[in-house]
Structure formats: structure tokens, C-alpha cells
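Recall the central idea of this unit: under ordinary conditions, the amino acid sequence of a chain determines the structure it adopts. In this exercise we apply that idea directly, starting from the sequence alone.
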Amino acid sequence: MAIRKTILLLLIVSLLSLFLKLLLVEATSTTVNSTDADLSKGWGCIEGERKALLEFKHGIIDPLGRLSSWIGADCCKWKGVECNNQTGNVVKIDLRNRDFSYLGRLSGEISDSLLGLKYLNHLDLGFNDFEGTIPNFLGSFERLRHLDLSNAGFGGMVPPHLGNLSQLRFLHVNGSPLRVSNLNWLSGLSFLRYLDLWTVDLSKATTSWTQAVNMLPSLLELQLSGSQLSDFPHHSNPFVNLTSLLVLDLSYNDFDTTLPSWLFNISTLRDLYLNSAGIKGPIPHVYLQSLGNLVTLDLSINGIGSEGSIELVNGLSICCNNSLKVLKLRNSGLGGELPDSLGNFNNLRFLDLTGNSIGGPLPNSIQHLTNLEILGLGGNSISGPIPMGIGNMLRMKKLDLSENLMNGTIPESIGQLRELTEMYLSSNSWEGVISEIHFGNLTKLECFSLHLSPKTKKQPFRFHVKPEWIPPFSLMSIDISNCYVSPKFLSSNWLTTQKRLDRIVVKNVGMSDTIPEWLWKLDISYLDLSRNQLHGKLPDAISYSSKADMVNLSFNRLVGRLPLWFNVSWLFLRNNLFSGPIPLNIGHSSSLQVLDVSGNLLNGSIPSSMNKLRRLYAMDLSNNQLSGKIPKNWNNLHGLNTLDLSKNNLSGGIPSWICSLSLDVLKLSENNLSGELSPSLQNCTCTSLDLGNNRFSGEISKWIGERTSSLKQLRLRGNMFTGDIPKQLCRLSHLHILDLALNNLSGSIPQCLGDLIALRSVTSSYIEFDDYEGQTSYSDHMELVMKGQNRVYESILPIVHLIDLSSNNLCGEIPEGITNLTTLGTLNLSRNQLTGKIPQKIGAMQGLETLDLSCNHLLGPIPPSMASITSLNHLNLSHNLLSGPIPTTNQFSTFNDPSIYEANLGLCGLPLSANCSTLNDQNHKNVQEEEEDEGGRYMTWFFISMGMGFPVGFWAVCGSLALNKSWRHAYFRFIDETKDRLYVFLVVNMTRLKRKMETIRVHG
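Accordingly, the structure predicted from this sequence is:
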């Protein structure tokens, strides 16, 4: 029985096996036949579609051959082309330039042959450089679901024909030249889920964009960043149909309004980007209650305001304390103190509050943000110490507490942040010591910054690590400045073991070592060891394998010859002890863009090979011992913007090539240059021209005011210029420093000086303050005489307003128009021959801080209006003919030095010893005596005149009558006739009078 069952089972298995083999053969036969049929029909690649693609390729410019695979019969194997596996129809074209290389960008024209691809559902032409507008025919692909034209080089109007793509799910069209007249065409895209019109100009659709977007009920993500939108309607919810919206990006627009309440009713929102959108605060607490799913909120660079900052954090901590992962409020005007509710964000990964006005200490609750990876609190006014519990934030990768008012010691618990890669603690007032204990567990640290303020008067902060200690991390960037480190820090294991360093700043830390050789072997991009006591010589030549952006070894004690530097862009070696000539082959340092070797002991002539430094932007060779003439053949320095050769022993004139360059700053002061100003200088486009303290002569050329219209600073003091001050200088609308002192100028001060626009009104000037008189870039500077002292102005030079015409031979009165210069800070007209009175309206010069009118011939009283110049803190009116009382109000009450009024015999009052009342009595008595003396003199001369006049008059008349007979007869005849006429006149009038009297009596 068992055997029968076994045989039966084997028989069944055999039959099944045979049946399966037959099925397999049939299937194989069918497959082969089907494949042969498909190939015979061309389903590997539809021939018509292959031709359409080739015609499209024909119109494309492909510089790197990205379409080189578009050959052969099977287009489905071409790069960027995908076909349907069943039908062989082309369904996808992806020609996106994914390496973002400009050389790899396709260009040319898009052929309408693509319309032959009837089954195309995916088209991506992003990051190319096609010409013209977006073709209208792209709106004819009935099956298209994905269209990406982002950064494809198109311009002009976005065709409304795209609204015919009724099956479209994804639309990405962006680029600043693109624009739309309206968005009504969006209504045809009812299945659209992703819409990105980033940087497309929607300004003409700004009043209707919300209604158009509301016609997309399936929309999940809306990107309208940088689209020039300005209307953010506050009426009832215009997005009522957007019930599935997850991402809304309206950043970089100009709404200039508060947020509408309906925005917070979109409860599905996950990511909301409103950074730099002109949003105003505050944001009411009640608005935030519906945003329970919010993951990302970016309100950076807006005007939320300090009054709503705490409410915003409190509201978010309640509604989305579990969901929120990214909170960016950088530069949003937030103020006040951070609330304890900050610690309620259980899942927060990214918190950026930099660049606000947040004050007070950090709340201890911040240690509860255990999932936080990035914390940005830099650029605020946060005070107090770092909370001890910061070591609990074990996922922290980036910590930025820079540029605050924090103090106290840095807790050792910061060393528990094992994931930390970046730590920025600069510009605070830390105390105590930081040591290897703080770094022991920071195995992933890459960037460390402890750049402190040098102005603190407290005990200097100490960076103290044992020389033999080897750190567990590999830094890429280190910045330790304005604290104390070991004098041999450069040779410590802390630095020598770092092999990945790209940026090294160890500045003003008291190092007094030679620079070790290993430092020159690093391939770094930024090196700043300035303001130490580093000494010794440098190698004859220093070269980096890749370009170093900057090397700054200024303000040290380095000696020897100046090395050659290769692959360095910005080189600062100022204020060292380098000596000898500049290398003759310095032209081989062809990468140099900024060269500053000022303040050394360099001598000899300037090498002509500098003409080979074609990339040079700024050159400062000042304050050395260079001699000879300025080279004549620097015509190749076309990019040279700043040239400073001042404080050397250069001679000769100014070569004509100087103004063939695009110089913005030209400084040749304090040399032995001579001659008249070359006419070639009129081709200069300088904003700063300093030729002071040389031996230039002749007249100041009129073309300075006619051709150099951009001039802001003109310093010609200490030369031998003669003649008048040219009126053409008044045309320099940007001029705010005019120094013509110590010359032989004559004539009067031009009335039109009061028309200098830059000194009549406040103008905005960009000022870059350096933290410790060092520099990370070349900065303009100028030596000026202010308040009787020579001072070098650098960072604040753009806001220094000065006119110095002292020590010349100027005459005439001070022009009234000069009082129009309301922002002028320094006016020095001393040591001239000026006469007349001080202008009565001088009080209008409210910006004056320094006024020197000494050593002239000015007379009259000190104008009362001068007392209203409350900014005045340096005054000198000595050696004039001024009279009357000295004002006692405002700033005059602080001028206690009598020497500023000396040699004005008519002045009285404090701080002079002359009493005004005594002086007035004495003056009155002197006046009476003078009047009496004057009257006596008049009477004496009266009697003398009469005594002499009578005989002279008598003999002049009578003598002539006695000597001349005809005159005598005529005279007496005239007397007789006059007598007769007078007699007749009296008789006639007496008769008439009698008749009138008789008539009156009769009628009476």
C-alpha cells in the first residue's frame, strides 16, 4: 500500500514537471516573438520621436558635449532621455545642468519638434542658458505632469499658455528677467501640487495673486520668494481652498505690513518663510494657536519689534512646542529678555536670534533644549555668564555667542559638547582662563573664535594650555585675539598638531617668538599674526600651493630683507623693521592685489618691475626711506586704485602715467617732489589727493575744480603755491576736506566756499571701524592738523569735515557765505591778513568743533550767536583787534584758557583779567577827554581862520576894485541900480498896503 502511494506520488510529480517545462518553452517562445515584434515595430525607440529629439539637438549649443550620447537608433538609451518600458514612447527629458557650471550650460533655441513627443510627462531644462522667451508651445503637452524651467536663462513674459497643462503637478519657473501680467492662467492647473515662481516679477499681479493661487485646491507647496509682491490682503481668508498647503515661501518681498490673521488659520502649514518680506510686528499671541504643525518658521530681517518678541516666543512655545524644529528670527528688531518658555521647545534643532537687541542674561531653561544643534545669539546685548547647564545640550554643533555683553568665566561644562564643530565666543568680556579642560572632549571641533575687545580695562583673559598638550580635534579655523597666550604659542602642540588649518588669526596676544617654519608649509588662505612682538627674519621667498587670500604680519619686530611672496593676494607687513631695497624682481609676485609695506626701513629706488603686478589694487610704500624718482613706466597697473608713496625721500615731478590709471586715492605727501602741477593730473578721477609738504610751486590749477568732480579730500598744505584760491574749487560737490595751509596764497577767500554741498548738509558715509587699529583690508587715512595737533584719521575719515587755509597771505573779510557750512567741523583761518568783523551768523555753523581765527586783523565784538555752537570745544581768537565782552554762556563757560583771547586789547570778561565795567568807565572818560580836546582844537582853528580870512577877503575884493577902473565903475553902477530897485519896490508895496487898510476900514 505504501509502495503504491509512493509510485503515484512520483508519477504526479513527473507530470507536473513536464507541464511546467511546456509552459516555460511556450512563454519563452512568446517572449521572443513579442520582442521580435516590438523591435520590428520600433518600440525600443519610436523613430518619429528619435527624429524629433535630433531636431531639438540641432538647435542646441552644447559646449561640453553633454548630448554626445544622442547618437544611434535607440534614443531610449540617450543620456537625459527616458522611455516607457511597455510602449517605447519618450516620457521624460532631463537636461538639468546639475554641476551648475557655466561652461556646461546648454544654450540656443528650443525647437517645437518636441511636440512630436506626445507622451512626454516630465521636462526639466533647469540651470541652462537658453535664449529668448519661454516658447508658447510648451503649453501644448497634454500629458505633462512635471515642468522645470528654473534658472534656464529665459526672459520676458511667462506665457499664459502654460495654463493649458491641465495634468501638471509640478511647475518651477524662475529667473529675474521673467515677469507676468496676471496669474489668471493658474486656474487651469487644478491638479498642481508644487508651484515655484521664485524671482519672477509679479508686481503687476500683486493685487490678485492670492485669488489666483486660491484656484489651486491641490497645492502643497507655494514658492513666491523675491517676486516683488507688495499687497498682503487683510480681509477674509483668500486661501480658503488651500486645505492641504504645507509650505509657504513669501520671503524677499516688500509687503510693509503686519501679518494678516487668516495666514495663521492655515493649520496644515509645516514651513513658513517670511524672511526679508517687510513684515511688521507685533504678532499677537492668539494668532499662533492654530499653527500646531509648524516645523519651520523664518521671520528674519523684518521689523517685528522689541515689544512683541517675548509674546512671540511664549506663543510659539505653547502652540508648537513639540513640532517646531527651526526658528529663525535674525535681524528682526527683537528686544527685551529671553523668557523661560524658550526651554519648552522639545524638538528645536535650529535657533537663530542673531543681530537683534536682546538683553539680559540667558535663561537657565536654555539647557533643556537638548535636541538643539545650532544656536545663534551673536550680535545682541546679552549679559551675564554662560549657564552652567550648557553641557546638557549634547547635540550642539554650532554655538555662536559673539558680539554680546557677556562676562564671567567660560564654564568647563562647555567641553561636554562632543558634537560641537563651531564655537564663536568673540567680542565679549570674558574673565579668568580657558584651558585644555574646556577642549578635552571636543573631538569634532573645526572652528574656534575667541576674539575679545581690546578696550577692556579688566585683567586680561588668559588662553592657557600646556605646551605639551595635544588637542583631540583638527581645526580648520582659529581666531584668538586681544587676550594673553603663551609667548611661544606658535611652537606649542596646540597649533603644531593642526594639519587642516586654513585660517589662523592670533593677533595682539603678546607672542614674542620667531615664526616657525612649519607655518610656511601649511596651505592656508588667511594668516593674521599682527600686533605681537614676533621677531627674526623671514625666508627669502614664501610660496603657497594654492592662493592665500591674506597675510598680515604688521606691527611686529621682523627684520631683514623683504621676502618675495607667491600666491598671496593681500599682503600687510607694515610697521616692522624690514630694511634694504625692495626686491628688484618683486614683479614675480604676480598674485598681489594689495601690498602694504609702510612704516619700515626700506631704502633705494622703487623697482620698475612693479609694473608687472597687473592685479595690484592698492600699494602703500609710505613712511620708508625710498629715494629717487617715481618710475615712469607703470602703465600696466590698470586696476590700481590706491597709491601711497608719502613720507619718503622721492624727488622730481609727478609722472604723466599716474592719471592714466583709475586711481581713487593718490598720496605723495612729505617727499621732495617739486615743480608745477602737471596738466596730466586733470585726467585723475581721485576722490582723495594728498600732495602736502613737498616743494610744488605755481598757482593752484583751476582744472582741479573743473575736471576732478569726484574729489572728496584735497590736501596741498606745506608747499609754495601762490596766487588766489581758485573759485572752481567751489564746484567740488563731494569735497569735505580742504587743506591749503602753509603756502603763499593771496587774495580774498572766495565767497562761493559757502556753496560746498558736502559741508552744508549731512551725507551718509560708510565707515568701517577696526577693532584695534589694525586692518583686514586696506583703508584710506590722512594726517590732518586738528585742535593744534597732527592726527592721523583712518576709520572716521569719511565724516571729518575740515577747511584749513591758515598761514597764507589771504586778505579781506571772512565771507558771510561760509556760515552756510553747517556741518563743517574744523575751520582754521589763522595767520593771514584778514580784516573786518567775524560774521554775525556764525552761530549757524552748528557742526563746528574747532575754530581758529588767530593772528589776523579782525575787529569788533565776538558775535553773540557764536555761543549757540554747543559742539565747539577748541577756540582761538588771539592776536586780533576784537573788542567788547566775551560771551559766558554754553561752551564759552568752559574756555578757561586766557591765551585764546590774548592780544585783543578791547576784549573783557573772564577768563581775561580785564573787567568790562572798569573798561567801560575808562573808555567813557577817554571819550570825554577826546571830545574836549577835539572841541578846543576846533575853536583855535576857528579864530585863526577868521584872523586870516578877513584881510584876505577884504583885499581880494577892495584891492581889485581899486586897481581895475572898469571893475570899479561896474561895481558902483550895480550898487546904484540895486538901491533904486529896492526903493521902488518898497514904495509900491507900501502904497498897496495903505489902500487895503482904507478899504477894510470903510467896509468895517
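The two ends are 199 Å apart (CA to CA).
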